[in-house]
Amino acid sequence: MPIALADIHNQAPSFYFVGDDISTAQNVALDPDWKVEDVKRAVGGILHVAQPLGITFHAENGPELTTVDEILNTFAESPIGLRVDGQAVQSPQGPEGLPLVRSFYEIFPDHLGNHYRLFRKYGHLIRTTNMGKTTYLTDSLEVAAVALAESAYMTKKINENHPLWGVKDNTAIFVGDTETENWRLAHKFLPPAMGLKAVRHYTPLMQECARRSFAVFDELDSQDQSWNVHQYMVKLASQTIGKFSLGTDFEHFTSIDAPLHPIVTNIASLLSRNKKVTARGEWYRHLPFGDPARLKQGSGIAGMPMVEAAVNASWVVDYLLNTVDETGQEFPEGLILANMLIVTGAGFTTTSALMSWLIYCLVNYEGTQERLYEELCANGIANSKEPVEWSPELAHGLPYLDSFVKETQRLHNAFFQPGRTKKTEVILPGGYRLPENSVMSPR
């Protein structure tokens, strides 16, 4: 980015955002030899515009200034106005709602439909306030790209407005701040355990878990009754993730009514309580009863069945216990338990949701079952008398299956991405202004 030159002759142009009072204008010294793109970068750097090339310059009476000469010849008359992506800068809008609860009932219980409605009404970046907790949400790809990038403006700093505030743990991946040494270590050692080579290594294990579930699903089919898809997808996903990450058999498919393993129920309860508590204001978290009190009691991992499982398991835990980096540094043993809790919990909750939506699509979209079956037969999978050994190459070689999974995620992926915290006030694509320490969740 160009560095604004020292204003030797006190002739630096001043700039302000269209939509703000002209008295907020700031001086930025320019070099006449710069290109207009250089001016945009210099001005954007001082006025905190995340994507400065979206800036346009405007004289007081409105016409756009497209060259550096026009800018330098105009600023003596009045400060120069700035638009971002053609828009005046503004704070995100949202429903005012009711006293005390504010916009809570504008969103829940149908948060998917209501968020869609609010985006259509207020624009691509909206503000909601639920019982004192203010959150910003976006469905804009351009805004999301800026938000998800670690930069001078954005990070994952889990504060009281962040959806992970109730389970924040800086010793664990996914639920800790990114600008910490523990986060750096976790992202250095854990990805190899989940990379392509690792997936190839664990594919037989995952296939075994899937095959063991067939007896239960065959029995459900023989009863000719409907059954709760998500319940069994939670069982299947957690059975597989538990075997992969902890080397533990959760015994979810010994019978139709086999109970969930305590590790799974504990993690699910923890996540459920956190969602209930963080959806409300900070005051709610301090209540001495109900979900806030239970979240405090259950937010630690001491006493969970995972403690013993993690110590005695093989698989990913063994990898973390024994791996070293290129310098011979080991992964700190004190970080293993917290990271395995998060890897296991995040794994089965997201996977079970995706598998549930995949079954929904197979049932509801005409022709999908037939096309998928044809592809499996064409590749010698569905019509083979011998068990087929799956591999990443085999799965990736099925174009319809690949497209089916991706289209399911596109149509029915209801998840918002992790909350991103603003390091400073910033102007986002579309001209949206967010304050320092505010939290935004891209969709």
TrEMBL record:
Transmembrane feature ranges: 336-363
Gene3D superfamilies for the chain: Cytochrome P450
UniProt keyword list: Membrane, Transmembrane, Transmembrane helix
Single GO BP term: mycotoxin biosynthetic process
GO molecular function, a single term: monooxygenase activity
Pfam family, one: p450
Keyword Transcription regulation: no
InterPro entries registered for this protein in UniProt: Cyt_P450, Cyt_P450_sf, Cytochrome_P450_monoxygenase
Name of the protein this chain belongs to: Cytochrome P450
